[in-house]
Structures are given as structure tokens and as C-alpha cells.
Amino acid sequence: PKVHVFSTHFYTKLAECAGGYNHKNVSRWTRKVDLFAMDLIIVPINQGNTHWVLAAINVRERRFEYYDSMGGDDDGRLKNLRMYLVDECAHKKHERLDLEATGWADYYGANHGAPRQTDGFSCGVYVAITAECLRRGAALDLENRRMQYFREKLTAELLRGALL
Length: 164
Hints:
4 helices; thiol protease; Adenoviral Proteinase, Chain; five-stranded mixed beta sheet; hydrolase; alpha/beta; single chain
């Protein structure tokens, strides 16, 4: 699939204002990228420098996805990503995108058996591995007993300069 992965700073900049949403902050982030030609858009989100979650805009399935390994609520993050996609379409394509009329839905991984962490420090590993599973269309097979393996795998890939 065609995948675009936003920087870990993207969502923070998108939500950086009194109202919690500001498209102008990130409107230039896709100058060279047509998000609407993608199958999947991955958005890692840092919550208050204490927890990582993952959101995805699954263009192929027409849904906004939210994965929190602690099972938490999205606190309006999917609403912001909905507004972002509508604004991005207006800004880049000069078209109105009606998500309701075209059948877009919200999907919460916690409601569909996505793995949960059993400690207070593996959220970053869960985000990285969940993003990789989504990118490859693979099952979310993140057993807690395999976290050390996933940590070592990520470390090796980062040291080689290429995620596998």
C-alpha cells in the first residue's frame, strides 16, 4: 500500500492553539505529498510527554483509526484528523470533502482486540510495531511476552538505518 507517515511533531502542531485545532500550522507539511493518493496515513501522537498513541487515516477503508495500548479515549483527536482531512482537501484540491456522505467511520483498536500493554513504559514500542503492522497489512500480534524481542528488533533496525 501507499503509505505516508507524519513526523511525531505533526499532531502537536495541528492541535497547538487555544481551540485545539489549527490547519494553518501544518498546511505546508504536505507540499510534496498528495495524501489523497495514499492508502494509509499514519499519525503518531504524543500525549503530554507521558504516553504515545497512534492514529491512522485509512483512506482505502474510509475510516479514522485510533490505537492506544492503554485503551484510553481519543479525546477529540479523531475529530481533529477529520477536520484536517477536510481542510487539506479544500486547501490542496479546492474541493469539498463530505466525510459523512462518503461513509467514513471511526475505528478504535481497543474495541477490536488490539493488544494492550501490561506495563507503564512500552507505549512507544506498541506505536512503532502497530504502525509497521498497519503498513504491511499484517495482524496486530503484539504479545507482551515478546516486547523484549520487539525492542531489540527496533534497535537493530535503527542502528542499520532501515526499518524492515
